[in-house]
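Protocol step 4 of 5: obtain the predicted structure for the target chain.
Materials: sequence only (see below). No template structures provided, no constraints applied. The aim of this step is simply to have a reference model before the mutagenesis design in step 5. Sequence pasted as it appears in the construct record:
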Amino acid sequence: MKTFNIFLPFLFFIPAIVMAQKIDNMASFRDIKSTHYFRFHYDNDYFTGTDKEYTQGYNFELVSPQFAKNPVNHLFIASKNSEFKYGLSLEHIGFTANNIASDQIQFDDRPFAAAIMLKSFFIATDTIHKSRIVSSLNLGIIGPGAFGGDMQTAIHRATGNTIPLGWYNQIKNDAVINYEISYEKQLIRFNNFFSIQGNAEVKIGTLFTNASTGFNATLGIINSPFTSTKNKNKLQLYCYSQPLLNIIGYDATLQGGLFNRKSIYTINNSAIERFTLQDNFGIVFQYRGLFLEYSRTFLTREFSYGSSAKWGGIRIGFIL
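Step 4 output (structure tokens):
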């Protein structure tokens, strides 16, 4: 236990180099103390001066009690003594090779790929045991039908950047059906200034099949996301870090869809890195019903002849 306590501060202040999870709105350090809110999230490697690997992602998130009647909720897991939040989100992610100007297959790089999904999710917070379970079901498509190439081309034309020509060789259309469940438990809390939570997650489906474990830590002016009481601090301002260890089973953005095996170029199964590291870190500002965040992510290579990647993101949310 002493060794564990020594390493936790070290990992918090020196972020690990990472990989895997792209958009995650469900972590406790992103909690909004309401059952009815809207939030927009946008990722882009432009924030880190790159244009490769995970190049862009966005998410429109709506939480409302009206979604309690969603029949999909019967697939989700809840613990006793929990408070519930129900939501829907629209999510889009895109990936490119390093040389976006080339129309040739880049055999030493990752495939071009894009996916779009409608996500139903359920957040169950146990206020007694200071834990939360988040379950979600994602339904969508990976491939040209996700219009990743059209979107990136339009953005680059509008901003005067290089026109991407590699999307012709992207991962082919296939179905996205993914079930995800994560568990988070508060381990340490010091007043309203510092906290550490352990977390674990499993994803099973046609887009991503993997597992991850790690922790997240927050430091600053914070309120507890594991209590039903009203916020003690109307203003919150804190930084966070979330190091993760990931075990990779299948990644359709690299290996192609499970049903459609006609993609022109994919990464061989033997080249996939099965263990990767990830760290998400950033700063959050909340005042009354407003939520603002700036985040950065670093990740290790996803396949043996690939390279590490990094990107940044912003989130804007408000209580309805």
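Step 4 remarks: The mean pLDDT is 89. The longest strand covers residues 174-190.
Proceed to step 5.
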